[in-house]
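Sequence in, structure out. Go.
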Amino acid sequence: MRTIKQPGTPVAERIQWVEVRGRAFSFTLEAGLPLLEAARRGFAARGFASGTLNMRRGALGPFGYVMPARSKTGENAAFYSDTFRPAGVTQFELATMTLGARDSAPFFHCHGLWREADGRASGGHMLPEDTFVAEPFEAEAFGIDGAAFAAEADPETNFRLFGPVPAARKGAETTSRAFAMRLRPNQDFAGSLEAFCREQGIARARIHGGVGSTIGVRFADGRSLEPFATELAVTSGFIAPGADGTLKAMLDAALIDYTGGIGQGLLARGDNPVLMTMELVLEAHEFMDGA
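Output:
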């Protein structure tokens, strides 16, 4: 499997996770607000401060973003481009967000694909301080209670990265047992989730959110993107027994690499290692006997 050497020493626990209670809901993000504030309000109205959003088709402006890029200093295995601030209104096709906190204030990590006002197709990492909702749009959300995603220093990658940390229950209405997770570098995306489900006795699960990066990408239909630094957004994800009874992760994703190459589709199992991080919430739908 492909690997990338990180600047720091790997920690033993390759999946950072906290068991939580959660609930799926939808809401409309208000026009004229910063995207971060619009998301925060939607979660707060349901009693949540952290979770995930999956969004399809919306309008942003003003808008700021960065793309993946090679590291110029060697302090990180990969880095970000300079900031892009396209004029006019940008129409995004899809976006996936992790909502949490940085320095005790609301913050998000959000990747997507979009088309700028001049017709340029692009994608990458939305900047919370530069991104505003131009027109109202709907989002599918999953709120978590009992943990929160928080940006913390990560010695392995030399970045500040979102990861789940335990938090006091807020008493929000919840319906599901779930697991807030962060996958660390150089482990297969699908394989890590399958192994986690086996260890926890989870027979069927749904992925909510899914923001991170992979070392290039291999799709199940044989397509690939070779450049190693990507920004990836999961658009749909499920884990369930296959025809042979073993657990299989079916992960649909969209991404852009550091050369501007764009890809979408079902990811190949066993051949998509994490580059820096992968944040998500795993909602358990069914447990194995005795779990």
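Check: Residues 176-287 form a domain with the 60s Ribosomal Protein L30; Chain: A; fold (CATH 3.30.1330.80). The chain has two domains: 21-144, 176-287.
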